[in-house]
Design brief:
Elements: E1 7-9, E2 17-23, E3 30-36, H1 39-57, E4 62-68, H2 73-88
């Protein structure tokens, strides 16, 4: 998937995650910045989940800033997918 512009999804509310994505030039790779209130317990799991979702969406060159307030795995997936699709210019049907 080709990203075209900056985009975001989510909120700073409790039990949610705010994800901001920004396209990078080809070959730049993935740059993920994660802040989480549960970083010690689940930080590695959240990072792995973000990478799995990016793999599934076919996204390689992206900068992601994720600010987690204790979101569940399904919420993280939904927010990332929404932000990526917004960045790629894909409209919800």
């Amino acid at each position: 998937m080709i990203l075209k512009e900056k985009a975001q999804a989510g909120t700073f509310e409790s039990s949610d995650i705010l994800i901001m994505v920004e396209p990078l030039e080809a070959g730049a790779g993935r740059k993920i910045e994660l802040k989480s209130i549960v970083m010690q317990q689940y930080g590695d799991d959240i990072l792995q989940q973000l990478h799995r979702e990016l793999d599934a969406l076919g996204v390689q060159d992206v900068r992601i800033i994720a600010n987690d307030k204790g979101a569940l795995a399904l919420t993280i997936s939904a927010r990332l997918e929404t932000a990526i699709k917004r960045s790629a210019g894909i409209k919800a049907s």
